[in-house]
Amino acid sequence: MKAKTDMGSEVEVGVLIYPDVQIAAVHGLTDLFAVANRVAGEMGNIQLSRIRVTHWQLDSVGRLAPVYDSHPGAVHALNVLVIPPSLRGAPPSELLERHCPHLCDWHGRGAVLASVCIGVFFLAASGVLDRRPASTHQNYVHALLERYPEVRADANVPLLDDGDVVTSAGLMAWTGLGLRLLERFLGATLAFETARYLSLEPLPSAVAGALFVPRLDHGDEAVLKVQHWLQGGAVQHASVSSMAACAGLEERTFLRRFRAATGLRPTHYCQQIRVGRACRLLEFTRRNVDQIAWEVGYQDPGAFRKVFQAATGFTPSDYRRRFAPTV
């Protein structure tokens, strides 16, 4: 999926403020995106969307309201809401529960939810991580699993982009998360140039098949419901008829609306999700290719190998040799 490049458009990044939040992450992310705007303005003829950063906090009556806006005046339409880390331990359940309806509301409107370190507890409490993989700090994996056993937590993956949810592990992982969001919404060139300006380690070279970015801001609620359903694990055995049933639409209508909203046929969309997940399993697990093929929804390993190579340009074995960590 291409990054947004319409002149005059904007990408709104919300940052959640809550008791004991790491203020360095809140302001660091704000500064990182401010620098990205400046860098984008210096990139000559390349026309990129402006990044609008907003801070959100519960008010006295429990509403999630903006308390800072880098470009005030326009109606809020979050593309992503980031939950920063905390300098203390795992947030108390009561605090998480107060935020759950708001996170679910923004997620249901098409916003990507992103977390750093123990910010993942907010996502887990909202239910969006049920039966899904998530990255968090190694010190909190067991606590996360005890409270939310449906989450497939993994501290060995520093940053995990799962389409409508992005999670990262370390307390200072907000720098990598910020660059990843730049890459997703505005392209790899801006992410690289921003990293260079800030003297940060740039993101590893991306492979197209591993960086599928689903379009979530199209406004078709029926299609968005199916997208969330697929990201939640249904993609392994999804069929066009089951997707249409999830959307509550007749198959022909569903096919037309899904392609209009996402730019892809449902079968191609599912294929992209499966390949992306296979890339992650090849990088961060020791499972063999046949096991991975089955886990992402292919009964025929040979068919999986063909699809994978067509999407990424590598065989699964070559991909693992090139991109899996060496230690």
From TrEMBL:
Database matches in InterPro entries: Class_I_gatase-like (IPR029062), Homeodomain-like_sf (IPR009057), HTH_AraC (IPR018060), HTH_AraC-typ_CS (IPR018062), INH-QAR (IPR052158), Tscrpt_reg_AraC-type_HTH (IPR020449)
PROSITE patterns membership: HTH_ARAC_FAMILY_1 (PS00041), HTH_ARAC_FAMILY_2 (PS01124)
Molecular function GO terms recorded: DNA-binding transcription factor activity; sequence-specific DNA binding
Listed Gene3D superfamilies: 3.40.50.880, Homeodomain-like
Highest taxon of source: Bacteria
Signal peptide: none
Keyword Transcription annotated: yes
Protein name: Helix-turn-helix domain-containing protein
